[in-house]
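Q: I'm writing a short explainer about lipopolysaccharide heptosyltransferase II for a general audience and would like to include a description of its predicted shape. Could you first generate the structure from this sequence?
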Amino acid sequence: MKPIDRSRVRKILIRAVNWIGDAVMTTPAVDTVRANFPEAEITVLANEAVSEVFRVYDGVDRVITFHRNGRHKGALGRLRLAAELRRSRFDLAVMLPNSFDAALVPWLAGIPQRVGKDSDARSIILTHRFPRVLLKPDTHQVLNYLAMLEYFGLNPSPAHLRLQTSAEEDAEMEALLAARGIAPGDFVLGVNPGATYGSAKRWYPERFAEAARELAGRWGARVIITGGPGETEMAGKIAELLEGDCADFAGKTSVRQLMALIKRCNFFITNDSGPMHIAAAFDVPLVAIFGPTDHRTTSAFFERGAIVRRGADCAPCMKRECPIDHRCMTAVTAGDVIEAADGLYQRLGLGKGGR
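A: Of course. Here's the predicted structure. Afterward I'll give you a sentence or two in plain language.
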C-alpha cells in the first residue's frame, strides 16, 4: 500500500462517475476527500448530467464539465481537456470510475499523484493502485469507494449519502407544485417508473398506478410522477390510469429541478435508478423494486427504505434487456409494493406528522 503524500496536496481533482445514481453513491467518498484535505481546493470533473449533481455541494469548490460528445470528444478532445486541466496545476487526482479513459486524461494533464482501482489495464498510468481483489462482490458500492480511499491512507467519513439544493431551487419547486394544486403541507407520494440502464429494471406502469392509487387513498397523499425525457410514455400511462389525479413531471424537469422535486416528496416508489439514490440522499422514505440488479451492492444506502424483490433463479443477471420472460419483475405484484410501503409508513410514523 502506497499512501498519498499529503504534504504536496493543495489542489485536488476528483473524476466523477458517469451516472447520476452512481454519483450520489460517491458522495461519502467526496466528503472523505474534503475531510482529509480541509484546506485544499477540490474540483469535480464530470459529464453534463453529473456536473449538475455537484453544482450546489459544499464538499467541492468547483465543477468542470466534461463534454464527451462536444469539445472533449475523441482523441483531440481528450488532449484539449488535458490541456485545460494542466493549467489548473492539480496535485492529486482521485479517479472514481474504473475506465482507462478516466485515468488517461489526468495522466496527460501531468497530475503528479493519480489514485484509483487497478482496473481496465490502466495500472501503468496510475501512481497509486487499489487492488480490485480486495473488493468483495456482495459489498455495497458506497463502502467500496470508501475502502479504496482508506487503502490510500485517508480516514473515511461516515457512510452517509447527501445532496444539496439551494433555497431558491426549493422555492421554485414549491411554486411549480402550487401551480399543480399541491400545497406546502400536502403529503406527496412520488412515483418513478423509469430506469435509464435498460427496460429489464423497469416495473410496469399499470402496477405503479394501482399501488399509487391505493396508497394515496390510504394516506391522503398527492401523487407526482418523475422521469426523464425518454420516460414520458410510461409516466403518461400511469397518469392516464390515475385519471389525471396526479402531477406528471416526467421529461419536464432539469437535473436540479428533479432533485428539488424528489426532496419535496414524503414517500417514493421507484425502480433501481438514479432517482432512487437521490431520494435516499434526501432521506425520503422509499420502496424500491429490484429485479435484474444486485440489491446488495446498489440498493438505497440508508435505513428508511424497503426493497421488494421475488428472487427469480436467474436474478441478478445484470442485463439491460431481459432475454426471456422478465420473471423477476412480473413476480412482483402491486399488492407486494402496497404492503411494503404501508408497513414502512406505519413503522416510521409518517401518518403522525413524521416526514
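A: For your explainer, you could say: The domain at 167-352 is CATH 3.40.50.2000 (Rossmann fold).
Q: Perfect, that's easy to follow.
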